[in-house]
Amino acid sequence: MANVSVYNMEGKEVGTIELNDAVFGVEVNEHLVHMAVVAQLANKRQGTQKAKTRSEVSGGGRKPWRQKGTGHARQGSTRAPQWTGGGVVFAPTPRDYTIRLNKKEKRLALKSVLTNCVNENKFIVLDELKFDEIKTKKMQAVLDALNVSKALVVLNENDTNVVKSASNIANIQTALTNTINVYDILKYNTVVVTKDAVKTIEEVYA
């Protein structure tokens, strides 16, 4: 099992924590990680784009001029794609972009990125993260003490003071243990996790 240092809010090492290999020591499956990212981005798409084809545009019921003898090219409708106000060729229609992964694939993908964070020393554990008021300056001081600039901060419980203190800091995002996902972990350089959150993650995913 991997041992990781535990820091306090001043950035000083106050101990170590042993991580469960069932979550933080698995074999990294890059293919599943890629599938999880593609699925998450695809599932965000609304798929509500729509344009009208020539059969859906109003008007253009009759032939604009006779077939021969006008000097013009033959035309069948003023709503053909080459006309202004005509329909769109191969127009987009509403569709479902959803990609589904089964539960085991999702879990293994998440465990793979968590393992990768630990292996690359991008996983920082805090003994606690609590503020008595909403103060962006205090949150920034904690991040500076940890030498962190772009991070995902994972909390065990929804602490309003911490969440709102971090909300105005660029490149910092807070998440709960039940909302962490592969894309967000890969998006940030560092994952900062409270000690309680580590235990919860191990209980859920081990």
From TrEMBL:
Gene Ontology process terms (BP): translation
Record bears the keyword rRNA-binding: yes
Keywords: Ribonucleoprotein, Ribosomal protein, RNA-binding, rRNA-binding
GO molecular function: rRNA binding; structural constituent of ribosome
Quaternary state and interactors: Part of the 50S ribosomal subunit.
Family, as annotated: Belongs to the universal ribosomal protein uL4 family.
Taxon lineage: Bacteria, Bacillati, Bacillota, Clostridia, Lachnospirales
Originating species: Hominiventricola filiformis
Protein name: Large ribosomal subunit protein uL4
